[in-house]
Design goal:
Pfam families: CarbopepD_reg_2 (PF13715). There is one protein chain. With 409 residues, the protein is mainly beta. It has 2 domains: 2-105, Carboxypeptidase-like, regulatory domain (Immunoglobulin-like), CATH 2.60.40; 114-377, no CATH class. It is 15% helix and 41% strand. The chain is built from 8 helices and 20 strands. It has helices at residues 2-19, 112-117, 120-129, 131-134, 205-209, 283-290, 293-298, 398-401; strands spanning 23-32, 43-46, 51-54, 60-66, 73-77, 84-87, 98-102, 108-109, 140-152, 155-168, 178-189, 229-233, 236-240, 243-252, 261-268, 274-281, 303-318, 321-337, 340-357, 376-377. Strands 8, 9, 10, 11, 12, 13, 14, 15, 16, 17, 18, 19 and 20 form a 13-stranded mixed beta sheet that branches. A 4-stranded antiparallel beta sheet has the order 3-2-5-6, with no helix packed on it. A 3-stranded mixed beta sheet has the order 4-1-7, with no helix packed on it. It is globular and about 60 Å long. Mean pLDDT is 90; it is low at 1-20 and 293-299.
């Protein structure tokens, strides 16, 4: 009853805000202008205000902003496309059928001689050296939307979602450079989940996907580890926000490198800022990351074989600095028990929806999120977004919404 009253009170407050003109919303889809296909993971928001969200896997978005910001530019951006920019006031208030077409950017193709002469390792080294210059030197607070999900043979059987705050303090000699707090959260757990995947999760997933390079250089590229990889300029130079971006491929120099990755680092040519890092662990690297005696015991007689561990981290500009935009991670594992195979897929995602100044003490250490198991269990067969209030979130895909069919009644 208390939860029902809270929801009702929130709905009334939200309605009052709309009546007073507190917030406006836009929702719709971002598509490729040529192919007319949806564009997933595209940013849409007001970069001048530090707010925004991402499209889901189906290219759909939901963006809420204060009415007072209506004259600010609404920006849509994604790698490989020309950015879209238009005043938010150009749209109808609370328009729900927005369709924005993005024009693919003209990629620059380079020849082999240019690739050979390009000092790729030096560019990576310089980009790492400039992290402090390109990032905020002062504490700040990221508010964002978090989702972790578990799929069983492609069907969603567990989805945990939350509005998180991540307080980051890049100042030296700070004992806790990052703190994460959950403002509200929920959990959809299907009754269709196989027992072979019990315990298959990332308990510290929220801490993983809120981390960013402004706190520390990635350990696999830090110091002497930089030389564990070979670097080469990709044969196409892409763009982001109309700026030229180098795609630098990296791969381990030998099979003996622990937790090795094959990946791409995207470096902005104008300020040498890292604007994206994405990689797959090598087959040996996946085993290095997931090999623990504790987890082996946890799975008992169930045979498991990790197939893929993928990470993608993107950054966006705000106030002359670069901040975490979104962090995605995917883990595929094949389970086998009594000759029955089950593919388990874990997806983690954090999308920064707001950037604010901080004094480094807005999140007390007593409020730090340890894991997501305590999120409220949802049993009502409805995927209701009212829970997020005026916070921005990522719309669940159509495939995610099907989880309500397997909820415990």
């Amino acid at each position: 009853m208390r939860g029902l009253l809270s929801t009702l009170c929130f709905f009334l407050v939200s309605s009052a805000l709309y009546a007073q003109g507190g917030y406006l919303l836009l929702s719709g889809k971002i598509i490729d202008k040529i192919s007319q296909k949806p564009i997933p993971h595209a940013y849409i928001g007001m970069m001048s205000k530090g707010t925004g969200t991402l499209t889901n896997e189906d290219g759909q978005f939901f963006y809420r902003f204060p009415r007072i910001a209506s004259d600010s530019a609404l920006v849509v951006s994604v790698f490989g496309y020309q950015p879209f920019q238009q005043k938010a006031s150009a749209f109808q208030p609370n328009q729900k059928d927005v369709v924005i077409e993005l024009q693919p950017a003209q990629l620059r193709v380079v020849d082999s001689s240019y690739i050979k002469s390009f000092e790729a390792r030096n560019w990576v080294s310089e980009a790492l050296r400039k992290i402090k210059k390109n990032s905020s030197p002062n504490p700040y607070l990221l508010t964002g939307f978090y989702r972790e999900s578990l799929q069983q043979n492609g069907e969603y059987v567990d989805i945990r979602e939350a509005v998180l705050q991540a307080e980051k303090d890049p100042r030296p000699k700070i004992l806790v450079p990052q703190k994460v707090k959950a403002l509200r959260g929920r959990n959809f757990a299907s009754q269709n989940r196989s027992k072979v995947m019990e315990g298959y999760a990332f308990p510290n997933g929220a801490s993983i996907v809120t981390n960013s390079i402004d706190i520390s250089i990635p350990e696999y590229l830090d110091g002497k580890n930089l030389y564990d990889y070979a670097y080469e300029l990709d044969d196409t130079i892409t763009t982001y926000l109309d700026k030229q971006v180098y795609r630098i491929l990296f791969r381990p120099v030998s099979a003996s490198i622990k937790a090795a990755r094959n990946g791409i680092m995207y470096i902005n040519s104008s300020d040498t800022a890292i604007v994206r890092i994405e990689y797959d662990f090598t087959p040996e690297g996946v085993k290095d990351v997931l090999k623990t005696s504790a987890s082996d015991k946890m799975f008992g007689k169930t045979k498991r074989d990790a197939k893929r561990l993928y990470t993608c981290i993107s950054y966006k500009p705000f106030g002359g600095k670069w901040y975490l935009q979104d962090y995605r991670m995917l883990l595929d594992t094949q389970f086998e028990q009594k000759n029955t195979q089950t593919l388990g897929t874990i997806k983690l995602q954090f999308v920064a929806t707001d950037i604010q100044k901080s004094n480094g003490m807005r999140i007390p250490e007593t409020d730090i999120l340890i894991d997501t198991e305590s999120f409220t269990q949802q049993t009502v067969p409805k995927y209701d977004e009212l829970i997020w209030g005026n916070f921005n979130f990522v719309i669940p895909s159509e495939a995610m919404r099907q989880i309500i069919n397997g909820l415990g009644k």
